Amino acid sequence: MTETDLVQASGNSSWMLISAALVLLMTPALSLFYGGMSRQKSVLNMMMMSFGALGVVSVIYVLWGWSMSYGSQSFLGLVASPFEFLGLKNSITDASGAYIAGANGYPNVIDVCFQLTFAVISTALISGALAERVKFGTWLLFSGLWATFAYFPLAHMVWGGGLLSHSASGLSAALFGTTVEEGETVASVAPIDFAGGTVVHISAGTAALVLAFIVGQRRAFLRHSHRPHNLPLVMLGAALLWFGWFGFNAGSAFAADGVAGLAWINTTAATAAAMLGWLLVEKLRDGHPTSLGAASGVVAGLVAITPAAGDLTPMTSLLLGVIGGVLACLGVGLKYRFKFDDSLDVVGVHLVAGLWGTVGVGLLATDRGWFTGGGMDGLKLFIVQILIALVAMLISGVVTAIIAVILKATAGWRLEDEDEARGIDITMHSETAYDTVGPDIR
Question: Does residue 440 lie within any of the structural domains?
Answer without folding.
Answer: no
